[in-house]
Design goal:
Elements: H1 20-44, H2 46-71
Protein name: CsbD family protein
Transmembrane segments: 49-68
Biased composition (Polar residues): 1-13
């Protein structure tokens, strides 16, 4: 009676498993597309892109300077 049952799993999965190489390839192609999009945007709007880069540089320098000043001892006398 069990041999007459034809419904159910046929032994072939609908979605084949993807290995880590396939996943890494998909991720790499997505990163390449995003980098290309950013590069195209920067090329189209060069003044804005350079202003953003300079702004980030000034902000990073300021944070580093403030953190460096806080780490110095408050005593100004040589020992």
């Amino acid at each position: 009676m069990a041999n007459q049952l034809n419904a159910g799993f046929t032994g072939q999965p609908v979605n084949k498993r993807e290995g880590i190489r396939k996943t890494a390839s998909n991720t790499a192609s997505a990163v390449k597309r995003e980098v290309r999009a950013v590069a195209t945007g920067a090329a189209d709007h060069s003044h804005t892109a350079s202003s953003v880069v300079v702004g980030i540089g000034v902000l990073a320098f300021s944070i580093g300077y403030l953190l460096g000043r806080q780490s110095v001892e408050t005593s100004r006398f040589w020992r």
